[in-house]
Specification:
heterodimer; A: 219 residues; mainly alpha; Methane Monooxygenase Hydroxylase, Chain G, domain 1; 7 helices; elongated; B: 272 residues; alpha/beta; Rossmann fold; 6-stranded mixed β-sheet; 4-stranded antiparallel β-sheet; 12 helices; globular
């Protein structure tokens, strides 16, 4: 027999997967636009707003389900995790918008060396895809893999940061010296990617919590 | 008998044994039958002192049989038989040398339906047990009645009408009167068998608050069908099914992350 709570959990599940799809699309699109040097941010802004509204809907529904049905065990853990994961997805959308906003704010950055951003974006977008897949399949092992990938992202971030402040040592840094737009945009976007990678790890943690009930301390 | 005499009596001294550190009640390999039907199967359960432990499970799982086994109340049921041990501190309450009357004095009980003595006043309901135990000192009885009614959070509501019949009180007040009656015997453990199932939410909330206060001085074991009540009031929860203790642990863990699939299904309402 279907419990009354199950109807609410079904709605919550639909909302969180809708956020998952939209946040993945936002990040992928933002990276594509960056690569093209296209600063049209209208679509990303709309998606970011949609994600924010969906996050509010999820929080409201979660609170309602707790108040009405006093869920326990897996049900409770899923509801709690949805609140946390929806925040992560909302941040994906916001950082995706921020990436394109940088292009808009800086003007054309077509001539800038994009290798640093693209190198980090490859791992970060993969992490985001994997975190969504972990939620879809309830893969409790994903968190560990995501943290390993996050180590790579952090290492890249530190490496590019060092390169940025010591421009004479690396290839491709000449344009940074010549054009502060390249310098600032690269650093900002690297930072957004690094933050997104952290949120992908938190999604992995939340999935692990749903499945096992053990919450891992933030690393 | 004066209070001094009572406190120095052999019965009281025998009852006041040295507690095992931290644990007040220890159920060991307890089996129970009603005629041929086995009601409890190899129950092991250690109850910490000054905590509330909730027994939950579907109807017929053995919760009431277990709680009634903890102060030998089950012996009053026709065909009931018990094997195994229940230790109160380090006294096995089923030991042949132990007087069940002393056990019932040390382990009080409150039932599902408030059952004040119908012909007695509020005062006499609380004093009855003391008199039955030979206490005649009027001043002492007055003191214990007042303390017990205060302990049951009823004093302020009845202090000016102690002579009124107990059954003239509301259902919630009657239940607190029964708790006061149990407290008058200064028990160390209080067993509560669905104590709020016949009460409205306000009266139930008062009993729940009372349990929270009482556990400072007592160890409480409660049978409840209300999962949210178990989650609210208890420190530890034991889930029973078909006469077996399926899972026992801290309430937060049982309700957030139970070990057993059966527990998860029951508390989530996925049974059947």
């Amino acid at each position: 027999m279907t419990r009354l709570l199950d109807y609410g959990l079904g709605s919550l599940s639909n909302l969180i997967m809708k956020m998952a799809d939209l946040s993945v699309r936002s990040v992928d699109t933002a990276i594509e636009l960056y690569e093209k040097g296209d600063g049209d941010k209208s679509q990303l802004f709309e998606w970011s707003e949609q994600l924010r509204v969906l996050q509010d809907e999820i929080t409201e529904l979660a609170v309602e389900l707790i108040a009405r049905y006093q869920p326990v065990a897996t049900d409770l853990r899923f509801i709690r995790s949805c609140i946390e994961i929806s925040y992560g997805f909302s941040r994906f959308g916001r950082y995706a918008y921020d990436i394109v906003d940088v292009i808009g704010a800086m003007g054309s950055i077509a001539h800038c060396d994009k290798s640093a951003v693209m190198e980090m974006a490859k791992t970060t977008t993969e992490m985001i895809h994997q975190s969504v897949q972990a939620l879809r399949t309830r893969d409790k092992t994903a968190a560990e893999k995501l943290y390993q990938m996050d180590d790579t992202v952090d290492a890249l971030y530190r490496k590019h940061l060092r390169e940025a402040i010591t421009p004479s040592t690396k290839k491709g840094t000449n344009d940074m010296v010549k054009d502060p737009r390249c310098y600032v945009s690269t650093l900002l976007i690297l930072r957004y990617l690094e933050r997104m990678a952290d949120h992908a790890c938190y999604v992995g943690d939340a999935v692990n919590y749903i499945v096992t009930g053990s919450s891992s301390p933030r690393r | 008998m004066t209070s001094e005499e009572y406190l120095s009596s052999q019965d009281y001294q025998l009852a006041k044994t040295v507690a095992k550190p931290g644990y007040k009640v220890s159920v060991q390999r307890l089996n129970s039958w009603f005629f041929e039907k086995k009601a409890l199967k190899e129950i092991n359960l250690d109850v910490k002192e000054n905590t509330v432990t909730a027994l939950i499970g579907p109807s017929g799982c053995g919760k009431t049989t277990l709680i009634r086994s903890l102060n030998r109340m089950n012996e009053m049921t026709l065909g009931a038989r018990v094997e195994g041990s229940v230790f109160l501190d380090d006294v096995d309450i089923y030991d042949r040398t132990v007087d069940p009357v002393i056990i019932k004095r040390r382990i009080g009980m409150v039932f599902q339906k408030p059952n004040p003595f119908p012909t007695m006043s509020i005062y006499d309901n609380v004093a009855a047990g003391l008199r039955l135990n030979g206490i005649r000192d009027k001043r002492l009885i007055n003191e214990i009645v007042e303390e017990s009614l205060k302990g049951a959070a009823l004093w302020d509501e009845v202090k000016d009408e102690l002579g009124k019949p107990g059954i003239s009180l509301s259902g919630g007040q009657q239940q607190r009167l029964c708790i006061a009656r149990a407290l008058a015997m200064q028990p160390e453990v209080l067993l509560m068998d669905e104590p709020t199932s016949a009460l409205d939410p306000i009266a139930s909330a008062k009993i729940e608050e009372l349990m929270h206060d009482l556990k400072r001085d007592l160890t409480i074991i409660i049978v409840t069908h209300n999962m949210q009540q178990a989650a609210r009031v208890s420190d530890f929860t034991a889930f029973m099914y078909l006469g077996e203790l399926i899972e026992y642990g801290p309430t937060t863990r049982i309700f957030e992350n139970p070990d057993k699939e059966l527990t998860e299904r029951y508390i989530s309402g996925k049974f059947g």
